[in-house]
């Protein structure tokens, strides 16, 4: 068996949030060397003290690629939260400009198109793009209920409605989530992200049973490199929005600190349910006509 300490370092291209640090911890636990490319405005250098690192702005991809080559990195993990800049604010360096000239408007289309272009660039430069699931397999969940509370019939109907809505959104590369209450779509996720969606729908909820947040992988989305992420903050925001539960795609979401998520959900009476969306196709229509 190959000693992981002798392998080429993994390059963690880190955005915001805790997920990049979880990948780093997983590398440490197995003895796998790693280096970090910290995206300015998102990752905090202080969190990466002692790790070989470079901080770059999003438009300085050329400098980041050259630095990774000097570090001997082979695999590259893109992980963490970022807010994509406008084309006017990008200010690409020479290396990034070379790739942008070829990629063209792919860089400013939907997230899936952009990520596909980024992976293509990395491969052309000799890297292997990999996803955080290579290191955080325990952060995924198979189909089933994670909490003491479970969905009632109305919540199941809302889940089915949410699946239909999110699949339609995902087909045009818009978002990964929606909130449904009593059959009404209170909000859908776009560029603002899940936390902002939950903050927005809190003021739109109806009287009666709370709604459900549904999070799914987009059709055709690369499950290894780009997956929805949920964490304790998601649970807290769902509780604050008055929701009854969260349904997410089984083996299709990264659960940041799963134990803490379950604990907070149980204390609030919120359900967490991992689903296979195929089990809910057509159920929304059936519920509406019953």
Q: What's the short version?
A:
By secondary structure, the protein is α/β, with parallel strands linked by helices. Helices cover 35% and strands 18% of the residues. It is built from 9 helices and 13 strands.
Topology:
Layout: E1 10-14, H1 19-30, E2 34-39, E3 53-56, H2 61-71, E4 75-79, H3 94-103, H4 111-124, E5 128-130, E6 144-145, H5 153-171, E7 177-181, E8 184-188, H6 194-201, E9 212-215, E10 229-230, H7 232-240, E11 245-249, E12 254-255, H8 258-268, E13 271-275, H9 283-289
Parallel strand pairs: 1-2, 1-4, 2-3, 4-5, 9-11, 10-12, 11-13
Antiparallel strand pairs: 6-13, 7-8, 7-9
Helix pairs in contact: 2-3, 5-9, 6-7, 7-8
Protein name: LpxI family protein
Pfam families: LpxI_C, LpxI_N
Domain LpxI C-terminal: 142-272
Report on the structure:
The chain is of the alpha/beta class. The protein folds into two domains: 131 residues, 3-Layer(aba) Sandwich (Rossmann fold), CATH 3.40.50.20; 150 residues, 3-Layer(aba) Sandwich (Cytidine Deaminase, domain 2), CATH 3.40.140.80. 35% of the residues lie in helices and 18% in strands. The chain has nine helices and 13 strands. The strands form three sheets. Strands 6-13-11-9-7-8 form a six-stranded mixed β-sheet. A five-stranded parallel β-sheet has the order 3-2-1-4-5, with helices on both faces. The longest helix has 19 residues. The radius of gyration is 20 Å and the shape is elongated. The N and C termini lie far apart (58 Å).
């Amino acid at each position: 068996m190959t000693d992981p300490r002798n392998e080429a370092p993994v390059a963690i291209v880190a955005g915001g949030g805790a997920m990049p640090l979880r990948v780093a911890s997983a590398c440490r636990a197995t003895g796998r060397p790693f280096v970090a490319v910290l995206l300015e405005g998102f990752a905090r250098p202080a969190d990466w003290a002692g790790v070989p690192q470079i901080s770059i702005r999003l438009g300085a991809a050329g400098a980041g690629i050259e630095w990774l080559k000097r570090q001997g990195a082979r695999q590259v993990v893109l992980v963490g939260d970022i807010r994509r800049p406008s084309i006017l604010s990008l200010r690409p360096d020479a290396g990034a400009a070379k790739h942008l000239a070829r990629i063209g408007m792919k860089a400013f289309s939907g997230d899936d198109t952009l990520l596909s272009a980024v992976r293509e660039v990395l491969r052309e430069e000799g890297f292997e793009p990999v996803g955080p699931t290579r290191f955080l397999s325990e952060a995924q969940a198979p189909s089933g209920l994670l909490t003491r509370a479970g969905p009632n019939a109305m919540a199941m109907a809302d889940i089915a409605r949410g699946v239909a809505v999110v699949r339609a959104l995902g087909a045009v590369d818009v978002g990964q989530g929606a909130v449904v209450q009593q059959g009404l779509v209170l909000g859908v996720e776009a560029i603002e992200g899940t936390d902002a969606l939950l903050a927005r729908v809190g003021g739109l909820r109806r009287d009666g049973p709370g709604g459900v947040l549904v999070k799914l992988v987009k059709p055709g989305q690369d499950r290894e490199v780009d997956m929805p992420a949920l964490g304790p903050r998601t649970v807290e925001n769902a509780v604050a929005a008055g929701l009854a539960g969260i349904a997410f795609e089984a083996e299709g979401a990264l659960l940041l600190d799963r134990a803490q998520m379950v604990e907070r959900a149980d204390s609030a009476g919120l359900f967490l349910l991992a689903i296979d969306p195929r089990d809910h196709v057509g159920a929304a229509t059936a519920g509406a006509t019953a």
